[in-house]
Amino acid sequence: MAPKKNSAKRPQPSTPKPSAPARIVKVQSSDGHILQADVRALLLSSTLAATIKGYDDENKPLEKLEVNNVVGFTLKLVLEWCEKHKEDDPAIAQAEKDKKNIFIPSWDRHFLTKLPMGNLFDLITAAYHLDITGLINYGCKTVANSAKGKSTEEMRELFGIPEPWEQPSTSTATWDD
Amino acid sequence: MGNKSSSVQQPLDSFSHWNDLPPELKSACIKHLDFKTRLLLRSTSRAERALVDSQKFNLEHVQIKGLLPYPVNALIPTGFDGQKLTIVPSSDAKTAIVIRIRNLTRFFETVLPLLVFILTRSVINEFSVEGVVLKNPELLFFVSRLGPITKSIYMDGNTCNKFPIEDLINNDIVTNARMVRIRDLTCKDAVWKLAEKWIENDSVIGTTFQVTSVHGHSIPHFVQKFRDRIIFENHEEVRITTNNPSKHILLKLARRWRVSRPLTCVVISSYMKKEEYESFGHWVSKKVMPIWEYLSFVFTDDFHEDDGLNCYSFIILIFHCLWLIITLNKTLKVNKFIIFLEAFSEQIPEVNKKDDAASDDRNTLLE
């Protein structure tokens, strides 16, 4: 990895907008945990942004958002990431979506690499359900980085891929067909 | 801020595995994998293999090369049992993967499936086959599987009369490549036939064909074929028009060696001046000098600085060959050794015939 080289190519985040008063809403996870988050952070999720927009269009008071497919622990991680990136320009994440080599900023690298692989899978799955492009990009890149240099067996262990004899298919062939 | 309202503990049952990820996410992760990791992940399970195979990836350079260095491999051509496969996934040379193949079993069990995977699933920028006697259908097997994006193709004719140049010229991947280089080609008509294809396809400016051969008939044949298109002609350069007024085709003798005639044929802008293509012969170096050039010193006493090599080069070559003979692995075929010795006993023309005969048994290698 060459962060310095890539960082030069990476589009710079737009200058932070003048800070408007934070609008806090409650977010409920699938297991009933209630968390609080700034709406600007939630807008990074296309799914939640659509819901919030629906409330705003109908002038309904937004008190609580329900996220039915993410558990509390993972939702907390998602909201922590969104909070950190709420000032980011969404165009950056979109631009990086199709790139193979993306640079992971140091905060994100630290945030994602400290997670056990299972939690990381949970996190990117949650990001996928909530459609948070930036988190999907960094999460998938972190998964790919963690597999680098591993042997087949080590990769099986890291990713929890069952051994060939534990898999539904009866064939163990890998090369020959 | 935010999420401080309750203490959220990690639930024990939320531990996900790779197999729990949606296929889209798996693909997004695979997209970021380097070539080697991708290959290893591919061998963990059938599902992963299918996922990896569903994505195209880029390779900078793929080279199949005889284990013996050029030009020795022109005398001792290797088959699939004595070659190395070099895969350079990115522009960083440190990422290169080199696989040495010293027997056919290893080739068929490991390398051929790997090659099929590479050729069918990757977009290769440069592809080269050197120092390996490949004939129809072996060479076409590789070339026809290259993607249309392949910019450069390097091949070795090995002065083999059965080199499938006709089939290659009729292959769109070869005619559309920006650079085609064939070393030691015996066919006299390859240049004009490829130029004819370029005219037909209105190939882009810069499309280049570089070839070294052991005869000087390519330019007269080219002139004869395109007589009505000629703008300029002498014994070293021919410039012709194409159907597109903004493009010309230039055939230039890149260097005049003792026996071989390296040529450059390139699509140029019709506005290009003569001074601008003086450098078109710079690709010719000792690295592409055919063995016949070295051997020509056996029969002559006078050496010129202009020759690019001298008697010392020849002596070094002899020592190099001796060292190779000593260190060659046990799989070296006796008949190849005889061919090598015969070449030094002034029976050079015989080499080609035996060359072909020795490699006849490889005809059905990939069938």
From TrEMBL, chain A:
Q: In which pathway does it act?
A: Protein modification; protein ubiquitination
Q: What molecular function terms (GO) are annotated for this protein? A: cullin family protein binding
Q: Which residues form the SKP1 component dimerisation domain?
A: 134-163
A single Gene Ontology CC annotation of this entry is: nucleus
- Which CDD domains has this protein been placed in? BTB_POZ_SKP1
Q: Name one GO biological process term.
A: protein ubiquitination
Presence of keyword Cell membrane: no
| PANTHER family found in the cross-reference section | SKP1
Its name, as the record gives it, is Skp1-related protein
Q: Which organism is it from?
A: Caenorhabditis briggsae
Automatic annotation (TrEMBL), chain B:
Q: Which residues form the F-box domain?
A: 21-61
Q: Which domain of life is it from?
A: Eukaryota
Q: Which InterPro entries match?
A: F-box_dom, She-1-like
- For this entry, the protein name equals Protein CBR-FBXA-145
Q: Which organism is the protein's source? A: Caenorhabditis briggsae
* High-level lineage: Eukaryota, Metazoa, Ecdysozoa, Nematoda, Chromadorea
